[in-house]
Amino acid sequence: xxxxxxxxxxxxxxxxxxxxxxxxxxxxxxxxxxxxxxxxxxxxxxxxxxxxxxxxxxxxxxxxxxxxxxxxxxxxxxxxxxxxxxxxxxxxxxxxxxxxxxxxxxxxxxxxxxxxxxxxxxxxxxxxxxxxxxxxxxxxxxxxxxxxxxxxxxxxxxxxxxxxxxxxxxxxxxxxxxxxxxxxxxxxxxxxxxxxxxxxxxxxxx
Length: 206
What we know:
By secondary structure, the chain is an alpha+beta fold. It has helices at residues 2-12, 37-42, 48-57, 69-78, 107-124, 157-163, 165-170, 174-180, 198-205, and strands at residues 82-88, 98-103, 134-135, 142-146, 150-155. The chain has nine helices and five strands, in the order H-H-H-H-E-E-H-E-E-E-H-H-H-H.
């Protein structure tokens, strides 16, 4: 029986261990060949075949969004524009489709918003699109970009209060408002033909 137990103990020893010695160290993992380590790590060790399959799954032509009024407002909100006002103009004016007025916290904020809008337009514009530039670069309180169908004004709050572009493009100038007002007159019942002595007659009646 003791011989059987001794034989079982020898079987339970680690393979390759010498009698009374330490177990044999396992060989280090094989290193990836040069130039393939990053690709194998990114693909979970699947090899270059998996990387090629991933590239084939990506669309060849990426469809970029159009630079329209919705995208313009989204970009302004992303740049923390203050008090965004969008005015849809009448086609009879033949100026633009949308008129946007926004405020900035500082001159630096105004220039940052305008430059970002111009950069995104150049990135998304279609072939044959108009050449766009920023107007008012030499000023610190007002900038303007004319995108053709969209015009954007960047202004400081105090400058915006002075020019009141919202009222100008929605109500029109004050003289035009007066010209559009319908002249009104009081009804005949409210017009009294008073004479110099009529006041005396009214006093005697009371």
